[in-house]
Structures are given as structure tokens and as C-alpha cells.
């Protein structure tokens, strides 16, 4: 059923103000345009709502019965439209962002701090998960935007580069390489390396970049999560090659991160959006802050 809001609004204005002239002025219409709206509404409803003479306008019996409901409809719609405009102007509301764990603790906190200061009443839900599930969350609509690692091109996904971060060598401060300003891939002792699972996007990317340089590494240990690798390094089990953001300064006393060179390998962190999908005002505001800081 098509609802003629303009016609109903015109009817209510005429009924409340007592005439076409004042109603036309309030609605910023000519009296001719206002008359057309009433005629269109009455034609659609199949009933007369107003009896009009050259000197006066009166509600018909049907018009008197319809007026309270029409007024309620106009008020409700006007309030709903006003709320939407306020939402758009102020960026108020809640949203969800999916993010790989290292970026949830490395890149997002500063942006969230700025966002919270600007929009103190808003609530952000963060899905900190692996790169595959970050993309899946954006595709399914579970999250409006994602922060993750580039993957194979997808027709519904848009990736925007945010920052580059290097892979680092992590070891205990007692390790023989700990005193060096940088280490090379040739320095690696495979017997003590803790490797991330070959199913991880990080591992696939790292192996690919090293293969281009004719470098291949095998570790004595393999884990699923970066946090597990850092835990093992902290316990003195071995060493690891991980993104720089894996460990925040001071988070693991005794664990060092040392630049890897020859070659240096960096991963790209991207903003992930769904193509042809408009972000909600609060998500759009967050997206703009994120890009302003990193992109």
C-alpha cells in the first residue's frame, strides 16, 4: 500500500490552521499545489475529507474521524525523520568492527580514544579474530568494517591500505643474538624457531615473500596463534618471527624484538569494506578517523 505522506500532511495542516492559505504558507507551497495534494489524497482514498466553499473549509464526517490518526501519523513520521537527521549530523549510534588481534591492540586504541572523545555515547563492538573471519564478518554484515591483511581479490570487498609493519625477530634477552642491532634470515636457528601455522595468512604471506628471495625456513615448533608464539618465547622455549605489533613495549619483560634485514619483510594492514554498501553514520565517523590517522 502506497502512503501519501505529503497529502496527509497537507490535510492535517488545513484542518489545524482552518484554511488553505495559512496551510500553504506553513508548508511553503502555493495554494494551487496544496489543492492538488488534497485532491490526489481524496482520489486515492475514494472519499471527501474536506468541504470547501469560496469562503470556508470544513471537515467532512469522514475527515473528522480520520484527523486524529492522520495527526498521529504526521507527528510520528516527523519525529522519525528528525531523529535520522540528528543521527546523520551527530554520528550517534552503535556499530561493529572486525579486526585481527594485533591491530586490535596496536592500531585501534588510539582511534577508539579519539572516537570516544568525539562520540561519548556510542558503543563499539570489536570482533578480534583471524584474517579469514574478519573478511567473512564484513561480507556477512556482522561487522560494518574490518581491519586485516590483504587476501585474494573478491568482487564484493574493497581493501584500502592503512599502514605497513615489519616482521621482527623475537627472542629472550639472554639469547646470543639479543645484543645485535639487527639480524638476518641467515642468522636464524631453525631448531629453535617457533613458526605460525601454515594455514595462517601471516605464514602464507611470509613464506611467499621469502621464497622470492630463495629463503625457506622450517621451525621446530608450530602454533596457531601469535600470542602462543610470544608465550613460548617468553618461557625460553625458542625464538619467533612475527609482525612488530605482536608484542607491545613492556608487555613481556625479558622478551626483545629485533629488526630483520636482508631482506626486510613488511605486511600491509588494510581497511576492509563491502562494496556498494553505505556505512551507518557512527561507522562512517570511525572510518574517517581511522583513515585520517593511518591511510
TrEMBL record:
Gene3D superfamilies listed in its UniProt record: 3.40.190.290, Winged helix-like DNA-binding domain superfamily/Winged helix DNA-binding domain
The family this protein is said to belong to: Belongs to the LysR transcriptional regulatory family.
Pfam families reported for this sequence: HTH_1 (PF00126), LysR_substrate (PF03466)
Coiled coil start-end: none
UniProt protein name: LysR family transcriptional regulator
Record CDD domains: PBP2_LTTR_like_4
Residue intervals of the HTH lysR-type domain: 3-60
Keywords: DNA-binding, Transcription, Transcription regulation
Amino acid at each position: 500500500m502506497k502512503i501519501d505522506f505529503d497529502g496527509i500532511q497537507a490535510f492535517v495542516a488545513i484542518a489545524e490552521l482552518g484554511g488553505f492559505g495559512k496551510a500553504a504558507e506553513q508548508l511553503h507551497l502555493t495554494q494551487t499545489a496544496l489543492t492538488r495534494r488534497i485532491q490526489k489524497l481524496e482520489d486515492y482514498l475514494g472519499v471527501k475529507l474536506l468541504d470547501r466553499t469560496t469562503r470556508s473549509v470544513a471537515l467532512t464526517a469522514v475527515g473528522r474521524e480520520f484527523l486524529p490518526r492522520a495527526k498521529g501519523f504526521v507527528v510520528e513520521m516527523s519525529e522519525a525523520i528528525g531523529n535520522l537527521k540528528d543521527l546523520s549530523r551527530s554520528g550517534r549510534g552503535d556499530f561493529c568492527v572486525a579486526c585481527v588481534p594485533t591491530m586490535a591492540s596496536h592500531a585501534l586504541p588510539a582511534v577508539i580514544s579519539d572516537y570516544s572523545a568525539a562520540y561519548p555515547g556510542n558503543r563499539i563492538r570489536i570482533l578480534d579474530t583471524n584474517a579469514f573471519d574478519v573478511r567473512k564478518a564484513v561480507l556477512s554484515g556482522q561487522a560494518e568494517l574490518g581491519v586485516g591483511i590483504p587476501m585474494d581479490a573478491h568482487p564484493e570487498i574493497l581493501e584500502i591500505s592503512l599502514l605497513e609493519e615489519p616482521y621482527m625477530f623475537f627472542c629472550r634477552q639472554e639469547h646470543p643474538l639479543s645484543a645485535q642491532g639487527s639480524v638476518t634470515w641467515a642468522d636464524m636457528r631453525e631448531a629453535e624457531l617457533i613458526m605460525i601455522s601454515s594455514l595462517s595468512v601471516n605464514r602464507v604471506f611470509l613464506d611467499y615473500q621469502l621464497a622470492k628471495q630463495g629463503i625457506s625456513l622450517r621451525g621446530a615448533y608450530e602454533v596457531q596463534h601469535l600470542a602462543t608464539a610470544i608465550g613460548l618465547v617468553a618461557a625460553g622455549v625458542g625464538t619467533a618471527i612475527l609482525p612488530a605489533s605482536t608484542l607491545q613495549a613492556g608487555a613481556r619483560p625479558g622478551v626483545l624484538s629485533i629488526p630483520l634485514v636482508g631482506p626486510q619483510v613488511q605486511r600491509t594492514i588494510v581497511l576492509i569494506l563491502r562494496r556498494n554498501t553505505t556505512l551507518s553514520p557512527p561507522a562512517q565517523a570511525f572510518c574517517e578517523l581511522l583513515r585520517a590517522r593511518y591511510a
